[in-house]
Amino acid sequence: MFYVPLYIETLRSRPALVFWLATLSQAALWLVVPLLFYAAPPSELARLLAVGHEFPLTGDFGPPLAYWLAEIAFRAAGLFGVYALSQICVIASYWCVFALGREIVGPTHAAMAVLLMVGILVFTVPTPNFGPPILAMAFWAAVLLFYWQAAIEGRRRSWYPLGGAAALLLLTSDAALILLGTLAVFTALSASGRAALRPIEAWIVLAGLAVVLVVHLFWLKGAGEVLAPTLARLRLAGMAGENTAAWLRLVGALVLAHAGLVILVVLASGWQRTYADLAPAISRAPVVPFAITFVKVFALVPALLATAITVLLGQRLPIGGAAPLLVLSGLAIVVAAGGSIALHHQRTLGLAWAGLLVVPAILVPAAIVLLPWTIGTDLAIAQPAAAMGRFFADSFERRTGHPLAIVSGDTRIAALVAFAAPRRLKVYFAAEPERSPWVTAQDIREQGAVVLWPAAETTPNPPPAIKARFPDLIAEVPETFARPVRGQLPPLRIGWGMIRPAGAPTAR
């Protein structure tokens, strides 16, 4: 007689319910954790909001849709809106994988594929840190789902949502050309793909995407400046081995991103199984060979291409982020497992899945409290953003009689202060002025600015690079801020100085 846990029976009988419970639990958990425990947003999110505040059309930061949506969400509901937007992207990605898997392997195995995704995203993709990779993950999952419906199942109306998702992907990510290029090559090389291009709807969508592609290439106009030195590096002796080693490191990092998934697969496969540990199999109808090819291609090829291009461009992280490259990993494992999957160690498997979901959330407050006392790590999410923004805005206005409008200096600190100040500020990226075309030297002369940098001592001496960029800077005594948990960390000192607005009274 078998003893089967309730969640296994629910997975068999009501896979959609299991899918929604798992997906909404993860989304709710990672919506609550940053709202309760983050004293400041992740540094990349603060920078994203600094750029999005200007609703830019141009700039050296790639397609802007994620920046626009983050700013709209922030204006509508503050950080709650941005964190909720990120979790909506995760839910949408999971739903697209579930819907695609339902067509390929059936609803029960599709729910299992989504459950495996928790072992990837929770550890690999910090979803509170919303940005282009998180948004691109949702659009890429939608592209794959609608492509399957339109090109493989022959649903002609699905061409229009496919075109919309592909257009939004082009407006979101630097990696859109890699992802959609893989899809185009797959279509050209497969008989089913070529046959799918016969309806008029397909050509209407392709014509619209051609227009969006031109706009996307405009945002990537700086790629040509990178391509020439890249080709020159490839001609150098010894670069082939170095590039191969760098590529293998990136691929290895993506493989390690599946550590949680591997744990679940090893437990479910019955490693160290005894005779008494039998489990009834969960079976499905046979999967057609073309579907297996489809899943394998889009689970592997975009990741291999993105990592290779990343190495050629001399970057450290996969182009476009890792999130879109992991969309089909769970479904690929389920497809490769065959038509009958026996879940062994069912109690332990359920506890392991719950642990992969909950333990990272528990580690966040634990890290905020313990790391300053143990290894002295200064976490960006534990810095007193509200106090910093309020102090520099008030100090500037008291000394000049003008409200603070522009902040610059260290990019991370400036973006944090711009977000947390009582009145949103413009950020001038001094080290890379092309990334902040909304602020000019004339703006700084007329409106003034506060320039910030990390300070180890109390002497009001700015770093030489900052002094060279801002010769009119009036340095002030660095300000010390109280950390929520100091532990063994040194005092949080922020060096700062002012550039007075034109016509502002001189300080007494």
Compact description:
By secondary structure, the chain is α/β, with parallel strands linked by helices.
**Secondary structure: number of strands:** 7
Structurally, the number of domains stands at 2
**Sheet with most strands:** 5 strands, mixed
Strand share of the residues? Answer: 5-15%
* Cα separation of the termini: 88 Å
Q: If strands are numbered along the chain, what order do they take across the biggest sheet?
A: 4-3-5-7-6
One letter per element, helices H and strands E, the order comes to HHHHHHHHHHHHHEHHEHHEHEHEHEE
Cα gyration radius (Å): 26 Å
Determine the mean pLDDT.
86
Instruction: Give the overall shape.
Output: globular
Low-confidence stretches: none
Instruction: Please report the number of helical segments.
Output: 20
Please, what is the oligomeric state? single chain
How would you sum up this structure, described in words?
The mean pLDDT is 86. Helices cover 62% and strands 7% of the residues. It has helices at 6-13, 15-37, 43-52, 65-104, 107-124, 132-152, 159-170, 176-189, 191-196, 200-219, 223-235, 239-256, 259-268, 289-312, 329-336, 346-374, 385-400, 411-420, 441-447, 464-469, and strands at residues 281-283, 340-342, 406-409, 426-428, 449-454, 474-481, 492-499. Helix 14 packs across helix 15. The chain is α/β, with parallel strands linked by helices and 508 residues long. It folds into two domains: 18-366, no CATH class; 383-499, no CATH class. Strand 3, helix 18 and strand 4 form a beta-alpha-beta unit. The chain is globular and about 80 Å long. Strands 4-3-5-7-6 form a five-stranded mixed beta sheet. A two-stranded antiparallel ribbon has the order 1-2. The N and C termini lie far apart (88 Å).
